[in-house]
């Protein structure tokens, strides 16, 4: 049975459960459940604090886990990323009161408050900057107002939390993060159960980012049309009953679907349809 760590709380837990559900796995019915078995898929899910997931996976007791890239790096656990999942996207940045810092060199001798001490200490060491780091559990944006630190380093998504606290980012982003699947460093990458799990999640990612497009066009327009809808490998082209016409079917990125439909119409394609993909294996 494959043993998988899943976030039990916070920004990662809802989207992770949703993705697993879309991939056909049973998920817990209420938020207090800490462990469930999905016998049909031969998988056991452990609902753990996101911060602890890399530690469990590195111990080898759990085969794989879903966590944030920033949490993985911060933990310094012996685990590695094997698949990015595209949700809980954020950047990790320094911020301070406007006009008090412009770059990392301005951190010299200052105190930085953060929940991600590992990332910050490493980044300061790599940059040759000596500064103190104070660990806070959350709501780090308030630390400056309350005099605990002159600078913070925190997760930024929309920037609303920083704006509300009257703070501004400075310097280069320290890292970009998103939810990722991890495994113990050097674990057997060919393990069939792990491979099957990854294929299912990849299927969800593809189903979320692509739509299926069907249309009819004249044979003379086919090369132009295919250039607009090259598909993943190559589009399916079938003859139509009316001579001189073909039907084309190809996957296209969902975000570009409307523009592609306009462009196809312009070159004479008709009966252009897009449909959602519910699941796939590439
Ligand atoms: N506002 C946000 N937008 C996108 N990702 C976020 C946001 N806040 C946190 N994350 C990501 O979620 C992960 C942190 O999860 P964690 O559950 O520890 O914190 P949280 O979502 O802030 O919840 P909590 O309320 O428990 O602090 C990290 O990978 C982080 O980058
Ligand atoms: O840029 P934004 O869209 O505002 O998102 C970033 C904020 O979201 C998270 O906080 P959360 O609400 O989880 O509280 P926490 O600080 O206690 O973790 C994160 O720690 C930032 O504070
Ligand atoms: Mg938080």
Automatic annotation (TrEMBL):
The record ties this protein, via Pfam families, to:
HisG, HisG_C
Q: Name one GO biological process term.
A: L-histidine biosynthetic process
Q: How is its activity regulated?
A: Feedback inhibited by histidine.
Which locations, inside or outside the cell, does it occupy? Cytoplasm
UniProt pathway: Amino-acid biosynthesis; L-histidine biosynthesis; L-histidine from 5-phospho-alpha-D-ribose 1-diphosphate: step 1/9
Residue ranges annotated for the Histidine biosynthesis HisG C-terminal domain, each copy included? 207-278
Q: Which reaction does it catalyse?
A: 1-(5-phospho-beta-D-ribosyl)-ATP + diphosphate = 5-phospho-alpha-D-ribose 1-diphosphate + ATP
Q: Does the keyword Nucleotide-binding apply?
A: yes
ATP phosphoribosyltransferase catalytic domain location is 49-203
Top class in the EC scheme: transferase
InterPro entries cross-referenced by the UniProt entry: ATP-PRT_HisG_long, ATP_PRibTrfase_cat, ATP_PRibTrfase_HisG, HisG_C, N-reg_PII-like_a/b, N-reg_PII/ATP_PRibTrfase_C
Q: Which GO terms describe its cellular component?
A: cytoplasm
List, in alphabetical order, the Gene Ontology terms for molecular function in this entry.
ATP binding; ATP phosphoribosyltransferase activity; magnesium ion binding
Alphabetical keyword list: Amino-acid biosynthesis, ATP-binding, Cytoplasm, Glycosyltransferase, Histidine biosynthesis, Magnesium, Metal-binding, Nucleotide-binding, Transferase
Co-factor(s): Mg(2+)
Q: What is its EC number?
A: 2.4.2.17
Protein family membership = Belongs to the ATP phosphoribosyltransferase family. Long subfamily.
Question: What is this protein called in UniProt?
Answer: ATP phosphoribosyltransferase
Q: Which organism is it from?
A: Streptomyces diastatochromogenes
Upper taxonomic classification of the species? Answer: Bacteria, Bacillati, Actinomycetota, Actinomycetes, Kitasatosporales
Task: Point out the gene that encodes the protein.
Answer: hisG
């Amino acid at each position: 049975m494959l043993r998988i760590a899943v976030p039990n709380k916070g920004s990662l837990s809802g989207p992770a459960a949703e993705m697993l559900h879309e991939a056909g796995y049973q998920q817990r019915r209420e938020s207090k459940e800490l462990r469930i078995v999905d016998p049909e898929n031969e998988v056991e899910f452990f609902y753990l604090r996101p911060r602890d997931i890399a530690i469990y996976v590195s111990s080898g007791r759990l085969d794989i886990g879903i966590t944030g890239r920033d949490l993985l790096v911060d933990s310094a656990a012996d685990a590695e990323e094997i698949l990015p999942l595209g949700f809980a996207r954020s950047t990790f940045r320094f911020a301070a009161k406007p006009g008090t810092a412009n770059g990392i060199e301005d951190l010299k001798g200052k105190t930085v408050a953060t929940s991600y001490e590992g990332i910050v200490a490493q980044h300061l060491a790599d940059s040759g900057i000596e500064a103190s780091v104070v660990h806070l559990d959350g709501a780090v944006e308030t630390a400056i107002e309350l005099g605990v630190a002159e600078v913070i380093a925190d997760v930024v998504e929309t920037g609303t939390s920083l704006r509300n606290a009257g703070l501004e980012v400075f310097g280069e982003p320290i890292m970009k993060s998103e939810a990722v699947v991890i495994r113990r460093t050097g674990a057997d990458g060919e393990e069939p159960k792990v491979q099957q799990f990854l294929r299912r999640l990849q299927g969800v990612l593809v189903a979320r980012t692509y739509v299926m497009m069907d249309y009819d066009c004249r044979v003379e327009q086919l090369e132009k049309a295919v250039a607009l809808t090259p598909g993943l490998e190559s589009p399916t082209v079938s003859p139509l009953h009316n001579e001189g016409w073909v039907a084309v079917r190809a996957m296209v990125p969902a975000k570009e679907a409307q523009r592609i439909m306009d462009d196809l119409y312009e070159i004479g394609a008709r009966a252009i349809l897009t449909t959602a993909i519910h699941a796939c294996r590439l």
